[in-house]
Structure formats: structure tokens, C-alpha cells
Amino acid sequence: MLNAANQILTFLTILAQVIFAAGLVYWLFFRPRPDSAIGQWLSRQGIVLAFWISLAAVLGSLFYSEIAGFKPCELCWYQRIFMYPQVILLGIAWLKKEAAIIRYSLTLAALGATFSLYHNYISLGGQPLTACATFTTVGVSCLQRYVFEFGYITIPLMALTAFALIILILGAQKILIKKN
């Protein structure tokens, strides 16, 4: 079961990274207009996409901690603080068709991405910014690797990928809605 879940979550991470890269290139070089097909679709579906990304991230983290038995480290907990509310906020925004939530969701995603970036930095051997190199206040080192697929995909990278894709999608949706 763990191998199957790792394969699914790894595939989703790589898919999200490809979508992020393509979306970033498209945004930087082609600047979708609000009246284009992509601009109109993203204006209507951005919150829905961000909801599904956040739901996958939450379910993945719950699988790893509650089913696989991987204890989350302190930095993982901080990332969860910024991802878990996304499911509720974006779900309500989707149901009510309310785009005003975007700025709050972007704030949560940016803060979560900051913790994810730092977690990835120290897990790849970077110099910790604090005296406690291993962040063991919750009993698990932040340097503990439970997943290492394709030589680079770890749980912190999965979280960073989800945060980055949410930021890209909702940021683009916010800009496109303002232009309308």
C-alpha cells in the first residue's frame, strides 16, 4: 500500500511540477488575456483547481502520518498549518462562487511555501538558520527522509510543489479577474 501511495503521490508531484513550469513559461512569455479562452477558463476554474491541489496535499500528508506512520517534524506541522485551511476556504469559495478568498489563500500559500522552501533547503544539506539544526522539538528531525523518489522528490518538495502551483493558479486568476 505504501509503494502504491508513493507512486501516486510522486506522479501527482511530477505532474504538478510540469504544469507549474508550463504555466509559468506561458504566463511570462504569452501573458494570457482575460478575453482569451485560457484566460476565461482560468478566471472561472482557478479556485476549483487550487481546491483540488490543496485537498490532494492534505490527503497525502494525512496518509503519510496516519496510515504510513511517518511522524511529521516541526516544519511539516508549520506547513500543514498553512495548507489545511486551504481546503475549507477554497471549498467554501468554490461553492459560493466567491473570488474574494483568493488574497487570503495566496497569503496562506506564500507563508506555507516559505516554510517549505526552508525545509527543502536544510533537507538538501543547507546550513540551518537557527542553532537547532534538526528541529527535534516534536520528537522527529526535520532532516528525516521518509520518501526519496527519482533522486529528488521528498515530502517537503511535495508540499512546496502544491504551494507553488496554488500561488501560480490563484495569482493568475486574481490578475485576470482584475483585468475584466
How are the secondary structure elements laid out?
Elements: H1 2-30, H2 37-67, H3 74-96, H4 102-123, H5 155-179
Helix pairs in contact: 1-5, 2-3, 2-5, 3-4, 4-5
List keywords for this structure.
180 residues; mainly alpha; 5 helices; 72% helix
Q: Extract low-pLDDT stretches.
A: none
Number of domains: 1
Number of strands: 0
Mean pLDDT: 90
Basic shape: globular
Relative strand content: under 5%
Explained architecture:
- It is a single chain.
- With 180 residues, the protein is mainly α.
- It has one domain (2-179).
- It has helices spanning 2-30, 37-67, 74-96, 102-123, 155-179.
- The model has no long low-confidence stretch (mean pLDDT 90).
Summarize the structure.
The protein is mainly alpha-helical. 72% of the residues lie in helices and 0% in strands.
